[in-house]
Amino acid sequence: MFDQMLNHRNDNACQGKNNFYSYNAFITALKSFHGFGTTGDATAHKREIVAFFAQTSHETTGGWPTALDGPYAWGYCFLREQGSPSNYYTPSSQWPCAPGRKYFGRGPIQILHWMTPQSPKPSCHDVITRRWQPSNADQAANRLPGFGVITNIINGRLECGHVNDNRI
């Protein structure tokens, strides 16, 4: 199923070709993050995995309007999000970066970003597994548990609250 969902990731047009995004690498990365795809019941497991792949493949799509299977079928094509900052992740004492390395939000960093709260925002994991409960201010702003608030966590004001914006 992994290969079917990401069937263009090894196309010659993609930076990620040559199995940069492999099933084995994904499973290895998951082993570092307790709870991903295992919190709650079977429906919650599936909901989290689907939401994760939907968000991360969207951020790395290499499709174009006339691409085979459409522009959004090319997830995991780029190695880093297009237009992202030069160093996507800032090291911390809990998650230090290797000396001299920069991290661009791809591979295991995607899962780290998914699992880690970014104060004042909850983690995507907590939202999709319904462990996060919106405050009164969240409710007033229509930030409710589900896929939409995950987009808000990932892209914030870049994609949320705008009208007639193709990023939305």
Automatic annotation (TrEMBL):
Q: Tell me a Gene Ontology molecular-function term this record carries.
A: endochitinase activity
Q: Which UniProt keywords apply?
A: Carbohydrate metabolism, Chitin degradation, Plant defense, Polysaccharide degradation
Protein name as it appears in the record = Glycoside hydrolase family 19 catalytic domain-containing protein
A GO biological process held by the record = defense response
State one Pfam family annotation.
Answer: Glyco_hydro_19
Matching CDD domains, A to Z? chitinase_GH19 (cd00325)
What InterPro entries does its record include?
Answer: Glyco_hydro_19_cat (IPR000726), Lysozyme-like_dom_sf (IPR023346)
Transmembrane parts of this sequence: none
Chain ranges of the Glycoside hydrolase family 19 catalytic domain: 14-37
At the top level of its lineage, which domain of life is listed? Eukaryota
Record's function text = Defense against chitin-containing fungal pathogens.
Q: Show the SUPFAM superfamilies listed in the entry.
A: Lysozyme-like
PROSITE patterns registered for this protein in UniProt? CHITINASE_19_1
